[in-house]
Write a structure and sequence with these properties.
- The complex is a heterodimer of chains A (80) and B (184).
- Chain A has four helices and no strands.
- Chain A has 80 residues and is mainly α.
- Chain A has a domain of 50 residues.
- The longest helix of chain A has 17 residues.
- The radius of gyration of chain A is 23 Å and the shape is elongated.
- With 184 residues, chain B is mainly alpha-helical.
- Chain B has two domains: 90 residues, Rna Polymerase Sigma Factor, Chain: A; 64 residues, Orthogonal Bundle (Arc Repressor Mutant, subunit A), CATH 1.10.10.
- Chain B is built from eight helices and no strands.
- In chain B, helix 4 packs across helix 7 and helix 5 packs antiparallel against helix 8.
- Classes of the chains: A mainly alpha (80), B mainly alpha (184).
- Chains A and B meet through helix 3 and helix 4 of A and helix 2, helix 3, helix 4, helix 5 and helix 6 of B.
Chain lengths: 80, 184
Amino acid sequence: MSCSPFDLRDYLFGELAEAERRQMDVHVRSCGGCQEELERLRITQSALLELRDEEVPQRIGFVSDPVFEPSGVRRFWRAF
Amino acid sequence: MILRAVEDTDLIRKARQGDVEAYNLLISRWEKRVYNYLLRIAGDREEALDLSQDVFLKADQNLRKLDDPARFAPWLFRIAHNEAFSAFRRRRPDRDGGASELTADEAAPAPVFPIEHSIAVKAALSKLPEEQREAVILKIYQGFKFDEMAEILSCPVSTVKSRVYAALDVLKLQLAPLKSRGVT
């Protein structure tokens, strides 16, 4: 990984500037070690993304709702 | 994404002028993301829902203090972060920051027998120290940039990056071998 001109994780996350990203594109194409490391990072990211978002079990109170105020539990704890 | 940001900015402008419907629409756009962020760090649906309610109340009360409406997302998640950890401190004074620090070398490899990925992922996340887990949630699940995460967590970008990277080192050992063995 140390042979890479920029951090592979920054590359994976799209955190590099355009010129840096292009430099990494070229490097990764020619470096087996970095290809392998990048693949492991992508597998890790994709495994994590298998935990899907849940739907909100009930809608969040709107400003116009008469009960748009801190929850009962929250008010109780704030009393202390 | 850009269109969405523009529309959010417009809703914020209207909400600041007292347009209740605009703020309601803003809630309906962001409630799922905020709820899932809170659910992943709190680990409890009811608590996540309570916290979400309080986050949107606080956001409504403070919307005029938002300096740059284009930075609404990190601003909203900063409120969510602060609300959550204030609640954790009040409700669970013995909360120790999550799992003890694990280095990549100490992390046990994931089991190779076929279990559902989601269970393996939940287990791997739960073993991370709290700060690293939250950094992964903001980066992987919420897709924030490092500078936005620094804003949300009120810490330097270098700190945010080191948390994400340390977590990835551990998660990679646990999750990458699991997937590459073709366990589905």
